[in-house]
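We both want to read discrete structure tokens more fluently, so let's practise on a single case. Would you write everything just below, so we can both look at the same thing?
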Amino acid sequence: MKIAVDDLSGPEIAAFLAAHVRQMREITPLESKHALDLDGLRRPEVTFWSATDEGRVVGCGAIKLLDGGHAEIKSMRTDPALTRRGIASGLLGHIISEARARGLTRLSLETGAADFFAPARALYEKFGFEYCEPFADYREDPRSAFMTRLLAAGPAGA
């Protein structure tokens, strides 16, 4: 698997993200959906990575800078046909390493509170994320779970 910064100009990543937004709309009411569209992901404060295997997009993830030391993880997705193969763990480890290299001190995220999102929450917990109050512009929402992690020197999974 290769993980690289993606400028979001290719049709493969556009289709991959469109499927992500469609799936989130099926699962989550519009007022509780926080996935960014292509324009939102192309903003200067966002860095987006694609994970590819033999040229095929198998996953993605991004960080959105909130302030000088704090960023939000956005658009984490693994191809639904390829779950439980380490793609999400590889992406999350990469994102944490990149955040550290940029001098960030905290990563936070919003994910769903429904059972569908339990594997995602378990992954974040495995990587040291803890539940927290809403951050940035988020508000309390029973359909959302908010998580955060302080970054320190050391391996990405620590």
Q: What stands out?
A: The mean pLDDT is 90.
